[in-house]
């Protein structure tokens, strides 16, 4: 019998089926690539179907690209049902899709912006969980939520976004307790800054892009703003049997950004 601790990285998720929201680009794309490299079949659920298909076409194992609006319960249900029909099972859900605008304090956030952020970032977890729960129960599977360090330590000029990520963190802990009896693990991962196409586009639009890049490096004590692969590696671990006794964990993958004051 293979010892859990001696499995090679290509076996960590062997045969598992993972439903990944927002998997077409950025952190989601990095996770899709890492999951497939670890032996999983990935269903990439994204509102950008063209980008999802492009990512799926690059994966070495059978995968699925499906159009999905995570803020719409019927859309989520259809995407999960399609995943199960194609692969015959569902082992994990990774709630990764999210939006971050506006960059504003609370009093400058419109009601429409507030509702949109909570619909996509928080209610999406409600929809995926309700739809996937019977399948995850059968598989004794797991749920992973992409939260953010701002949900732990806060962030200026980003009140609504920070609120959604704080809600996701609390929800992760509640779900971990509720579903432990079903042997379903629920964890969250908390990046700080991560270079994605959207972040690079935003940085390039600033008055001094090079200073923005320097700032993003400085907020991480390990000295750099990372690419999405560092998040993906941690995600593989949390969805694998290597983390089989970990649930309710809020894992910072942040280069130490949450550790406090520095010179």
What does it look like?
By secondary structure, the protein is α/β, with parallel strands linked by helices. The chain has a single domain, classed as Rossmann fold (3-Layer(aba) Sandwich), CATH 3.40.50.720. The chain has helices at residues 26-37, 49-57, 73-87, 111-121, 123-139, 150-153, 159-179, 197-204, 209-218, 229-239; strands spanning 17-21, 41-46, 64-67, 92-95, 142-146, 185-191, 250-253. Strands 3-2-1-4-5-6-7 form a seven-stranded parallel sheet, sandwiched between helices. Helix 2 links the parallel strand 2 and strand 3 (64-67). The longest helix has 21 residues, at 159-179.
Lay out the secondary structure.
Blueprint: E1 17-21, H1 26-37, E2 41-46, H2 49-57, E3 64-67, H3 73-87, E4 92-95, H4 111-121, H5 123-139, E5 142-146, H6 150-153, H7 159-179, E6 185-191, H8 197-204, H9 209-218, H10 229-239, E7 250-253
Parallel strand pairs: 1-2, 1-4, 2-3, 4-5, 5-6, 6-7
Helix pairs in contact: 1-10, 3-5, 4-7
Give the number of domains.
1
What global shape is seen?
Answer: globular
What is the chain-wise order of helices and strands? EHEHEHEHHEHHEHHHE
Helix content, binned percent: 40-55%
Fraction in beta strands: 5-15%
Which CATH class is shown? Alpha Beta
The CATH H-level superfamily is NAD(P)-binding Rossmann-like Domain
Level-2 CATH architecture:
3-Layer(aba) Sandwich
User: If helices are DSSP runs of H or I spanning 4 or more residues, what is the number of helices?
Assistant: 10
Question: Radius of gyration, rounded?
Answer: 18 Å
């Amino acid at each position: 019998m293979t010892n859990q601790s001696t499995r090679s990285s290509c076996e960590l998720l062997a045969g598992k089926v993972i439903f990944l929201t927002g998997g077409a680009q950025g952190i989601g794309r990095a996770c899709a690539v890492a999951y497939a490299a670890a032996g999983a079949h990935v269903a990439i659920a994204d509102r950008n179907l063209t980008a999802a298909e492009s990512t799926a076409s690059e994966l070495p194992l059978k995968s699925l690209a499906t159009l999905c609006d995570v803020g719409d319960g019927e859309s989520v249900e259809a995407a999960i049902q399609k995943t199960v029909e194609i692969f015959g099972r569902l082992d994990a859900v990774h709630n990764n899709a999210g939006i971050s605008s506006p960059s504003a304090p609370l009093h400058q956030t419109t009601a429409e912006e507030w509702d949109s952020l909570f619909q996509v970032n928080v209610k999406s977890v409600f929809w995926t969980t309700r739809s996937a729960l019977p399948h995850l129960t059968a598989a004794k599977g797991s749920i992973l939520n992409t939260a953010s360090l701002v949900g732990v330590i806060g962030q200026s000029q980003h009140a609504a976004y920070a609120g959604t990520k704080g809600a996701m963190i609390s929800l992760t802990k509640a779900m971990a307790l509720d579903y432990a009896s079903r042997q379903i693990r629920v964890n969250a991962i908390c990046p700080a800054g991560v270079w994605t196409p959207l972040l690079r586009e935003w940085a390039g639009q600033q008055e001094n892009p090079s200073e923005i890049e320097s700032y993003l490096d400085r907020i991480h004590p390990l000295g750099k703003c990372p690419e999405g692969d560092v998040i993906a590696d941690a995600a593989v671990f949390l969805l694998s049997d290597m983390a089989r006794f970990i649930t309710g964990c809020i894992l910072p993958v942040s280069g130490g950004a949450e550790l406090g004051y520095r010179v």
